[in-house]
Input
Amino acid sequence: MEQKKEMNVYVYVLILTSVTALILSVLYTSLNPMFVANKAAAKRKAILKCIPAKMDLGDDKKVNEAYAKIEMIAVSPAGEVYDTTKLEAINAMVANGAKKYNNLEQLDLANEEKKNEKDRVYPVYKYSGEKTYYVVAVRGNGLWDKIWGYIALEEDLNTVAGVFFDHKNETPGLGAEIKDSEAFKEQFVGKKIYDEKEEVQLAVIKREPPKGDEHNVKGISGATITCDGVTNMFQNGMKHYDNYFEVLKPKSKVSDASL
Output
């Protein structure tokens, strides 16, 4: 009798587990497209937010209309360019658990970090409106977890036109201010990323930068490690675009005197 009761419990648990798994599978299948769409919309909005152009981002339709002015490519650290026609080539470099992309817009630095360093590609978003801006993506480490950002550059590929930062798990009121504080982000506008030697100099420092300083912004009080992470994110992230930028930059004309 006891053995029969025990068997009934096993059967009940098996049925309950199977039904639960089926429900979760149905929910995932039905809700995943909505999740993917919302994630894509949030990403588009984040990219557009760092571009200093007049645009209405009130709903997804407005976001998509504004995003239509953006042309996206991916570049390798060597400067090789991948457009939508070369998605297969990007997916051919997938390794170490990285996911393949169904379209170029899905390109994600968190996924790229899983690849061998030589196989990684990095997104560039060219916005063509009244002015042209180039937006690049960077990713680094905060106090508790990953931080990332989008940097809009003027056509000189050196002057910051706007920034958008986000984080996975920074402290509210402290490290999380890299995302929440508009005053912090506004400091970056007009700053220069590179110096005369083409080295990244943009940094977040503890003190108020002297008037006329081109490269430094004041950090967030009590969030030194997160702010150092932002500095390192610029230092490490921008170098992936160096070779591509060299191709974009107008070449200096040789003067008649040097001929």
In short: The chain is about 35% helix and 20% strand. The chain has a mean pLDDT of 87.
